[in-house]
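Supplementary Note 3. Input sequence used for the single-chain structure prediction.
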Amino acid sequence: MSILTTLYRGEQQFDFPAVWRKALIGSVLLVMLSVGSFFVRGLNLGIEFEGGTSWEVFAPEASVADAREALSGTGAAAGKIQTVGGDSIRVRADIDDLEGVAEVTAALADLAEAELSDVSVTTVGPSWGDQITDKARNAL
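The predicted structure, written as discrete structure tokens, is reproduced below.
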């Protein structure tokens, strides 16, 4: 019989009192490791909580290095640039003014050889992110 069958039927004998100390120590170590990771790495909050602007464009021929080079003259070059699904580029930066947003949009459209309307732009203000953060804290 398999182990799962014996567990299901209640035929498996396991001496829990003999291993409870080891299990407790292991559990406490895992919890401490989990809590410690928050202090070491911090939280990776999305644009909804931090505010800023996000652009996404279909560019199957472009890489992250190409996007960083195309955005070098804009304020988004220092932002977070990543590929999405292998054929799209997503850029996240802390640019709120309309001129900066338009400049990055034009640079990404040139990179992807696409129209300006093909670049998806999402802007979230920091006040909205602060409201959501406060509501999340209150929910906890």
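The CA atoms of residues 27 and 94 lie 40 Å apart. The chain has two domains: 3-41, 47-132.
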